[in-house]
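Attaching the record inline, Q. Sequence:
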Amino acid sequence: MAEQLKPVADKLPAKAGDPNFAPVAVLYGDLGPVLTFIYRETGVYMETLQDRICTRVNGPRPEAGCP
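Structure, as predicted:
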């Protein structure tokens, strides 16, 4: 995503407080909580998935080698 946004970012003014940054600040304020939720839930999902994979791989000893 960052690579796709780089050309846009390169066109933004370099000085702080520029009025062109206002829409970016609003967008960040609107999307920040949504992205935080997505990242948190993705972490929970990945941890659960890892636990299930570890249990399968270790067969009768599910605790062996699992965090």
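DSSP finds two helices and no strands in the chain. The helical segments are 2-11, 22-57.

More tomorrow.
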